[in-house]
Design a protein that fits this description.
By secondary structure, the protein is mostly helical. The chain contains six helices and no strands. It is globular and about 55 Å long. The chain starts with a helix and ends in a 6-residue tail after the last helix.
Length: 145
């Protein structure tokens, strides 16, 4: 006879714990109300100078940057002269070219202490990410990266 009484106590304790959790939740009990937050990345001039290249060219630049730091970035600078778009539309093509050359030199000169090599790999990954996002935009496919 005591067994049903203990189940009742357990149920009451569980209900009290659920009420405590709901009271501690700042969103309240319903999850239907919410706030949409949009985050936009602010890019510096060197990062914004990375050109949007075709996917195969971006992969080649990533490969070059992985094994010879700065070489892929150097090659990507010439794609700017061939008409590749960047996130610096108000700057002249030659200025963006020299920004990419400066990034390549930074990668080459700091590769001795591994910083440039790591930066070079991340730069190549950014090139591939930009190429993929550009491909989605050109094809009209919604982007879900």
């Amino acid at each position: 006879m005591e067994h049903p009484h203990k189940d009742g106590e357990t149920t009451a304790a569980a209900a009290a714990a659920a009420a405590t959790v709901a009271a501690a939740d700042p969103r309240g009990a319903s999850s239907s109300s919410g706030v949409v937050v949009q985050v936009r990345e602010k890019k510096g001039p060197l990062r914004a100078a990375i050109p949007y290249m075709p996917f195969p060219v971006a992969v080649i630049c990533l490969f070059l940057n992985t094994f010879v730091p700065g070489l892929g970035t150097f090659v990507s600078a010439f794609t700017v002269l061939c008409g590749a778009r960047t996130d610096l539309p108000d700057r002249h093509m030659c200025c963006v070219f020299w920004l990419n050359i400066a990034a390549a030199l930074i990668q080459i000169l700091t590769a001795i202490v591994m910083v440039g090599w790591i930066m070079s790999i991340f730069w190549g990954m950014d090139m591939v990410i930009l190429a993929i996002s550009q491909g989605y935009k050109e094809q009209g496919i919604p982007q879900q990266l």
